[in-house]
Structure formats: C-alpha cells, structure tokens
Amino acid sequence: MQLGEGDNLSLNMKVILFAVGSGALSALLALSLITGSGLALLLAYLAPFPLFLTGLGNGGKPAAIAGFAGIVFATLIGGPYAGSIFAIMNAFPCWLFVRLVLTSRTRNGVEEWFPIGSALVTLSGYGSALFVLALAFLPVGTDGIAQMVKDFLTLVLNTVAASLDAEQKEGFVSQMAHFFPAMVLISWKLMTVINAILAQGVLSKSNKALRPSPVYAELTLPDFASWAFIGCAALTVLTSGDIAYVFRNITVVMAIPFLALGLTVVHQLVRLTRFAGALLSAFYLLLLLSIWVAIPVIGLGLIEQWIGLRKKFLR
C-alpha cells in the first residue's frame, strides 16, 4: 500500500506556517484546562481538531510538523509534563491516525483507502498500550491497582464534591473504580474520532480533503479484532487481582469498535421499518440513559463480524 497523500504534495512555506499555527492552537486548547474556566473542558476536547485539519487536508508531513509544534508550545507554556501529555494524548495519535487513513492502494484501476474500522481498532490498541505502560510508572501499592484508583477518585471527590456525605462518596467510588481507566480511554478515543470526523467534514465541504469521506454504514473491522476482544474477555474471567482488573478495562476499550459496528447493524435494521427516524431517536435516547443497552449492540457487532448480518438483511 502507498500513502494516499503522496510524496508529491508541495510542502511550501504556507503549509508549514499553517501547520505550526495549528499546532500552537491545539496546544492552547489542550492547556485551557489549567485556567479553570467553565468552557475549558469543551475547548480541551477540540484540541485535536487543528491537527486533523492540517493532516487530513495536507498530508502526513504537515501533520507531523503540527504535532511537533504543539509539543513545543505545550512545553513552553506548561512545562515538560504538559508537553509530554500533549504528545501522548494528541500529537502522536493524531499523526498516526492521519497516516493510516491517508494510506491507499490501486487495485484493478480502483483506489482503495485504508479501512476506517482498522484505524478505530488501532486507536483502541494504542489506548490499551498506554494504560499498561502507565501502570509501569505509577506507584501501585500492595493493595493493588483497584485500590489505587479508589484512592485517586476519593481524593478527587473530596476536592470537587466535599459536600457529599461519606456513604455517597464511598458508593460512587466503588462503582466508578471498576472501569475508571476504560472510561478515561473511551472519552479520549471519542474525542479523537469526533474531531477527525469534524475536520474531514469541513475539508470535504471546501473540496480540500485528500481522501473521500468514508461511508460509515459500510464500516468493517479486521479479522483479528474479534479474537483480541474475546481473548481479553477470557483473561478477565480466568485471572484475578490486578491482572483481571487490567484485562477487564482493556476488554471495555476493545469493545468500542464492535459497538460502532453493531450500530451500523441497528441502522440497517431500522431502515427496514416505516418509522426509521423515530426509532433511531428512541434507541439513542435509551442508549444514553442506560449503558447496558450497549452490551447487545456489541454482541450484534461481533455477530456481524463473523457472519455478515448486513448482507443478509440486504438480500
């Protein structure tokens, strides 16, 4: 396969300056959290957008320049720690995603682009690897990872919700601690993917996108993804202690691509009815109200991966 942006794209001064400016803006958005403003979280969620706008519109090299510029600006503003976090959470994954989705090959005269589903699985693998590497540097005590997470959540609650009584805090911490790392990684992954979709949409409308926008209804996942997901789930059941905790959270992270695949099956099913819009609205409302609704959707994604439900519906 060859990179879709090609080496023949001009890397002129205008593109370089745009990439540097995008990196600086991304760093400012990411570091807006230190201001404590009410809009800080929303601004921080938009931090990958300038990086994707540069990469998806100009190629991998400008994306690398934008990412490096963002790291430099984040380091100058917030110090080496802020620069490192920006590199890990924004610069590198955005560059990696751009390089993947701009990869193409020509087969029988037709240009085939890197599957979006494979890029989603790659992000899940990257997030899981970050989780495991973080544990190597965190001071995990003798009580285990779960207790360390509980202590962290308790400290946060005592800071931001000091008015809650001890019983409420303990109940909240006990529920959140089981899947807190996975929730953080899923939030980061959603932030990355949504910003990529927004950037691609802006570029497509202005005819500056390097690749055509993917048809999300035709989402597919690589074959190994299902076995990786099932393997992590099996290790969660067969092990105990810290190992089970790690694989439980990785399983949740690896389930997100199958949730996306299952949603395409739901959309295909709903299209067979007369009230598609109303049914989809009710379904997504139910999904927002109860996370347990996601479990059968993930199951649909696994079944689609194995037997191709969407093709059977079309027939």
Describe this structure in words.
The chain starts with a strand and ends with a helix. A 3-stranded antiparallel beta sheet has the order 1-2-3. It has 315 residues and is mostly helical. Helices cover 74% and strands 3% of the residues. The chain contains 14 helices and 3 strands. α7 (145-160) packs across α8 (166-177). It has a domain at 1-114 and 185-214. β2 and β3 form a beta hairpin.
* Estimated structural class: mainly alpha
Arrangement of strands in the largest sheet: 1-2-3
Main pleated-sheet profile = 3 strands, antiparallel
Order of helices and strands: EHHHHHEEHHHHHHHHH
Compute the number of strand runs. Answer: 3
Coarse morphology: globular
Mean pLDDT across the residues is 87
Query: What percent of the residues sit in helical stretches (DSSP H or I)?
Result: over 70%
Percentage beta strand: under 5%
Low-confidence stretches: 1-7
User: From the alpha-carbon coordinates, what is the Rg to the nearest angstrom?
Assistant: 21 Å
Highlighted features:
315 residues, disordered N terminus
Question: What's the gist of this structure?
Answer:
The chain has 315 residues and is mainly alpha-helical. The protein contains 14 helices and three strands. The chain starts with a strand and ends with a helix.
Topology:
Blueprint lengths: L1 E2 L9 H18 L9 H6 L2 H11 L1 H19 L1 H22 L1 E5 L2 E4 L2 H22 L7 H16 L5 H12 L2 H26 L17 H16 L2 H30 L5 H14 L4 H14 L1 H6 L1
Antiparallel strand pairs: 1-2, 2-3
Helix pairs in contact: 1-3, 1-4, 3-4, 3-5, 3-9, 4-5, 5-6, 6-9, 6-11, 7-8, 9-11, 10-11, 11-13
